[in-house]
Amino acid sequence: MQGDEKSRASGEASGQAEAGGIDRRKFLKGGAALPIGVAGAAAGTSTGASAGFSNVQLMKDQVRTDLFMPEEHWRERMTAPDDGKAYGWIVDTRRCFGCHACEVACKAENDVPLGNFIRQTIYHDAPRESGAVARIMVPMACQHCVDAPCIKACPCGALHKGAGGSVQVNYDKCSGHASCKDACPYGAIYIDPVANQAVKCHNCTHRVDEGMEPACVSTCPSDALTFGDLNDPESKISKLKVTLESEDALEQIRPEKKTEPRTWYATDENHRVAAFESKLPAEGQSYHPDAYSVYEWQETTPPHGRVPHPADEARKNQMDGEGR
Predict the structure, then answer these.
(1) Quick one: pLDDT at residue 317?
(2) How far is 148 from 80, CA to CA, in rounded Å?
(3) CA separation for the pair 260, 63 (Å, rounded)
(4) Low-confidence spans in the chain with pLDDT less than 70
(5) Which of 135, 136, 141 is closest to 103 using CA atoms?
(6) How far is the C-alpha of 253 from the C-alpha of 279, rounded, in Å?
(7) How many C-alpha atoms does 324 have within 13 Å on its Cβ side?
(8) Gap between the Cα atoms of 65 and 68, Å rounded
(9) How far is Cα 145 from Cα 4, in angstroms, rounded to an integer?
(10) What's the rounded Cα separation, in Å, for the pair 25 and 320?
(11) Low complexity bias located where (predicted)?
(12) What's the pLDDT score for residue 300?
């Protein structure tokens, strides 16, 4: 992107933030006042500070609309190709035993650098009434939302819908602005430290187009990952989805965000989404090696995503200093 275009895009994003009542840089530093409508609905006051709530708590049920570009900038990119397909995922938390094979396969397939992750298995130890502990292992990646906030926030037009509605990145356009990462409610995007571009799951389109499964799916030894075309009633995922729905065994991550994710989680009484949701990264965060620490598995992890890692904070400070 040329300098004048980047400045114009930044100006538009800034204008959107002012219109929404939230300054983006102040929000990232945790010091922004929220719109009266938001704070009032939560606590009957005009600011989070006076209500005794943090910004994250007040914004928990919302997406970062203050980052969104004007609709004419993303409307076409939000429209999937007319290929008749709707790719989706079912993650069976009851079958995953945390071997990390999906992560290794993903890293090998996509040349993901050390310390970064397109997908990551989250561990959570949940105490049971009997006194025992239920260890939950959850493979996480992009949710491939129908109403994807990352596409709406991208100022350079790189995020778009690909085959089957897969949310993808056009690397000929991505400038590493990182608004997509800041807008993602699931922490599913990271900024490549060398290329300075956004990286995320793209449903292994290069494999799927050749009739193969995504690398993680074909590698999983416990059959915990199911991928396929939801528009095909005879596909494995469609049949499995019908069965699990009849058993009331399907949940989604942060449905309150209303992003219409195309990923579902098969759960039971020992593997509820509510038990591990607080371990997942949130807006402005990414999967991080800290998740492998046994101290991160315990139930007392801070709610709604881990405490931001110093690496995340350092990047935010760097980008703010560059006038992002």
Answers:
(1) 67
(2) 12
(3) 12
(4) 1-59, 299-324
(5) 141
(6) 12
(7) 22
(8) 5
(9) 31
(10) 7
(11) 10-20
(12) 55
As a whole number of angstroms, the distance between CA 295 and CA 320 comes to 31
Name the residue among 231, 203, 263 with its Cα closest to residue 86. Answer: 231
Q: Which residues pair with 88 in a beta bridge?
A: 228
Rg from Cα positions in the chain = 20
- Farthest-apart Cα atoms in the chain, separation: 63
Distance in angstroms (rounded) separating the CA atoms of residues 219 and 209: 18
> What's residue 132's pLDDT?
83
Q: What span, in angstroms and rounded, lies between the C-alpha atoms of 124 and 136?
A: 5
Residue 323 has a pLDDT of 56
Q: Are 118 and 112 spatial neighbours (Cβ–Cβ below 8 Å)?
A: yes
What's the CA gap between 203 and 212, in Å, rounded?
11
Domains annotated on the chain, with CATH: 63-296 (3.30.70.20)
pLDDT at 315: 55
Are 201 and 189 in contact by the 8 Å Cβ rule? The answer is no
What stretch of H or E contains 136? strand 133-140
